[in-house]
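Notes, Module 5: Reading structure tokens.

Key idea: the token line is not a picture. It is a compressed description, and you learn to read it the same way you learned to read a sequence, by spotting repeated patterns. We will look at two proteins. The first is printed below with its tokens.
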Amino acid sequence: MSKILIIAEHLDGKLNSSTARCVTCAGQIGADSIDVLVLAADPAGIAAEAAKIDGVSNVLAVARAENAHALAAVCAPQIAAAAKNGYTHVLAPSTTFGKDVLPRAAALLGVAQVSDISAVEGAHTFKRPIYAGNAIVTVEAPAGQILVGTVRTASYAAAAEGANAAPVQALSLDVALPSHTRFVELAQGKSDRPDLQSASRVVSGGRALGSSDAFKVIYALADKLGAAVGASRAAVDAGYVPSDLQVGQTGKIIAPELYVAIGISGAIQHLTGIKDAGTIVAINKDAEAPIFEIADYGLVGDLFKIVPELEQAL
């Protein structure tokens, strides 16, 4: 019998779509019960959102002032305590949040973590990418202990809203929380464009743009498409755009319906971050660029000529 606990990711009172993607993964494991744990100072609104996800059995809401901000040192003891209530699996998204908090919870539970689950082979057998996505390895975890794992959310579609809301239960955890870690501030980029990790369309630029000023053509096309803006690591390292726009192994792993790569050669680290995209369009003057090997559509030519023409046509 599999009983799965999913750790909800949220910010500013809103549930992140990565939680619904974890529910899809949990459903493939064949769970008898899928519960969502919400840790917040005021979890009511977030819990109500989680309750609407199709496949969720129960939502467990923990209201503590210490949970006003998602600090790994504070969340992990609560996750470990909740997991001991008969759960066989504990899952969280393989995002900055999940990568920060779940290893701590695994350590408190005395188990090893399975990271970046991209496919389910069995209740304790999974596939995950290694070597920057160049290979996929099958991992089997011991069946006699709690399985703690992060889910590669780009590999799963978000579970839809169900017809009926799952029950929300207030959960009280008798656990002492550490005080050595405190929240100072959250520096967060503001943009009118869609969020890069959840956008259905993304337009990315690479080093071939040549300058931050030239990135205007990327922003203009993205605005025409209602898309988020991304960039290769080379463009970020060159200072053309801020690091929060970086797509790839050391940036954001995304799976939009449409990904447009402009002036991006296609290093393996970048391709790792976009391999789950629905349709990939590449524009590059080098016909031998690796990006064309995975692109569904390719345009060989000068991006400064092609992109304005494409924008005009749109």
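Here is the second protein, with the sequence above and the tokens below, as before.
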Amino acid sequence: MHKEITNPMADIFKYLAISILFMFIGFAFGQAFIPISVVQVANLILPFLIIGLLIMAILSKKSIIPRSFSMNYVYLFTFIDGILLYPLLSFYLQSLGTSIVINALLGTCILFGILAFISYRKKAGHYLGIGSILFAGLISLLLLCIINIFIGSQTLNILYSVLGILIFSGYILYDISLIKYDIESGNIISKNDLSIHVLNLYLDFVNILLDLLNLIYEFKD
């Protein structure tokens, strides 16, 4: 194995943590340089941001994005994503309060950790069989989000968030299982081979966080 990769699974979680950090750096950058007036239209930005994240998830899950590329591109993407998320996260911070947003973030971390541990304890490739079901769910989420732009139904919004949490939770099981399978199959030999896996896990994490915040917001109202 390439000297860069001594413990692929540990490295993936390390790079994932760095990616999430870059997202928050992007958020801080947005706070410093994006006018507060942008925050006031967060409700208008939300559907298009969610659609963008879903399309990105679809592209990555279907390997339309190359499977091996520099980790720097992942960091660049997550930094830009943090900037784009600034109005939405600011909206939630103002509407829900800092403590609730932090608790949602901690809850997402705990859920992610539990699901990753469950998948890691299983045999490599154990959850790969649910991939087609999850992908169909991902397409359904995209369509539901587009439909709700025109309908504006609170019920559909809640349904979307619940399904989103379930589907991306399933994808954590799937992605960790795939990573373990790729490691045991010898498909990960350099740092760049980890990039698509880190990107997938980042998208799982962020989508669950946004769905959880949206769910809390809907029930708070």
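Summary for the second protein:
- Helices lie at 8-33, 36-39, 42-61, 71-96, 98-121, 131-151, 154-185, 195-220.
- The mean pLDDT is 90.
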